[in-house]
Amino acid sequence: MIIHVTDQAGEKHELEGLEGWRVMEVIRDWGLNIKAECGGALSCATCHVYVDPDWLDAVGAPSDEEEDMLDSVGDVRSNSRLSCQILCSDALDGLKLTLAPSAAKD
Ligand code: FES
After folding, report:
1. What DSSP string describes 12-26?
2. Cα(19)–Cα(35) distance, rounded to whole angstroms?
3. Under 8 Å between Cβ of 86 and 50
4. pLDDT in tens, 3-16
5. 3-state secondary structure (DSSP) of residue 82
6. Which residues form a coiled coil (predicted)?
């Protein structure tokens, strides 16, 4: 599956995701600017992304725990998600998202 990622500088990247991997892991392993401090344990919110509106239904709604973590960042929007909570699958082939400023490493 392919994931289209726009980074904080506006640059576009096309990443190859593996089924069952967390989207955060794909973005991180490709070396993009994502902190993902807790490694996917849902306790940091530094894997914050904005999901393209066309993909919101396919990605699905965040859990209550994820929403609580998103409430802790200042740049949250209605299409905010934590990328460690999105699993790669064929249904998400072509997924488009943008890295949030609060996900940057520094
Ligand atoms: S990596 Fe920490 S919540 Fe996603």
Report:
1. EEEEEPPTTSBHHHH
2. 22
3. no
4. 999 999 999 999 99
5. strand
6. none
pLDDT tier, 30 (very low <50, low <70, confident <90, very high otherwise): very high
Type and span of the H or E element at 2? strand 2-6
Q: Which residue has the tokens 């299409």?
A: 79
Mean pLDDT within 13-40: 97
Q: Which atom of ligand 1 is nearest to the CA of 44?
A: 2
Model-level pTM? 0.96
| Contact by Cβ (8 Å): 7, 33 | yes
CB of 70 closer than 6 A to ligand 1?
Answer: no
Alpha-carbon Rg for the chain in angstroms? 12
Of ligand 1's listed atoms, the one at least distance from the Cα of 42 is: 3
Query: Does residue 100's CB lie within 6 angstroms of at least one atom of ligand 1?
Result: no
**CA dist., res. 79 & res. 5, Å (int):** 15
